[in-house]
Amino acid sequence: MGKKRKQRRQARGSPWLWKQTNCWYYTLPGTKKRMPLFDEGGERIRGMENREAAERALARERLSLEGEGVGGTAGHGPWLVARVCSEYIQYCERGVVKGTISKGHRDNAVSWLNDLCQYCGALPVGQLKKGQIKTWLESHTTWRSSATHRGVIAIVLAAFNRAEELCNVANPLKGLKKPPSKPRLHSFSEEDEKALYEATEPCFGNFLLTLIHTGLRPFCELARITADDVEETERGMMWRVDSSKNKRTRKIPVRPEVAELTRKLMKTAPRGSRIPLFRNTKGRPWKRMTGVVRFLTIKNKLGWDMDPVKTHYSCYTCRHTFAHRMLSGYWTDGVGCSIETLAELMGDTPKVAFDHYGREWGQHYQAPLWAAIGEHSKGRGGPTQGQGKSHKATASGSKDRSSSDRSGSNRKKRGQKRTTRRRG
Fold it and tell me: Is residue 123 within 8 Å of residue 81, measured between CB atoms?
């Protein structure tokens, strides 16, 4: 009698729970690829008790898959660029509600992807080429910065990567390269910093002063600092900084002048009030738009908009100035900090900090290069005469020792030969 065939636990094509992740999946028809199931809020469905929710999610997927064929083509036509962009914008909207995506990313995605739809939204995804994306970028004369191009390409790639991951739509932009990042080489001199404070009112002046002395990101970090984020220690004041950009929390020490200013501002925004410490003249938190407009006004007032270098100054130049001063030892008698220390203070990774600031301004990077060609920093000249003599003495001593070792070995060989002759 043959083996009894095992009965299938569930019908073919049903959702199934993977115990390793405790999430529900389904197998894409015609493949062995597992696809996760999501609820209406965009969250993965987890737990054995949510079988009904998984079945409803699979029913929604089947409705979308019924009209799809190989390569993401639909019964009413192929997937269009506009649909890919729309799906990603809806994902960003849900992320803002849940707090997993910043408003700035959502706003940029809405602006740039809608612009892409005006250019080629009716084009099937399978017919989209990388060259068309580059032509679209170059058609915008105001997008001159490589940083802008990097941001636009990153969001476009994110939209098509998400469509490929969730809907099995082949990504035609795989391999599209972003422009390389450039180091941040603009920083304020002492004269520029003094001119800034004189050309603006105290509220914005305090905001810029704190940016220069802490290196925080202007609007997603410093503009959100409240009295509840301030901590007094034996060594001085520390801030707890929550960044919406990289979702990290860090604690940083602040300089005495910033600590003194903070204590004054805490009188108008005490602990528990949740009122930001740095506010504009109307008592409202600083926003990106108001801050940018205020800084452009200062540039026009000081004539920096006509200067080929200073025309690139912005609120973010305060952050670059902090990095420049930390690496050059501005506050520490010329002894610059390491890249790792700067990265922790600024909320970056060491690689990002090195690429943006360290290669041009880092003493720890440049000092070994100068030492390699025999040029040491001030106060660290070449070897002294005594050091040279000791080096020569050591060399001569090693020669004497080597010659004495050779003579000793020769004596041993002669003695062995004499002993052999006597025995013979």
Answer: yes
**Helices (H) and strands (E) in the chain — how many of each?**
15, 8
The pLDDT of residue 395 is 40
pTM score: 0.62
Low-confidence stretches of the chain (pLDDT beneath 70): 1-13, 29-31, 63-77, 184, 376-424
> 249: which DSSP letter?
E
Cα–Cα distance, 130 to 112 (Å, whole number): 16
**CB of 185 within 8 A of CB of 360?**
yes
Q: How far is CA 155 from the centre of its chain?
A: 15
pLDDT (tens digit per residue) in 84-99: 999 999 999 988 888 7
Question: Cα separation of 319 and 188, whole Å?
Answer: 10
Burial environment of residue 260 by CB neighbours within 10 A (0 to 12, 13 to 18, 19 or more)? exposed
CB-based contacts of 304-313 (< 8 A; 24+ apart in sequence):
309/186, 310/192, 312/186, 313/186, 313/188, 313/192
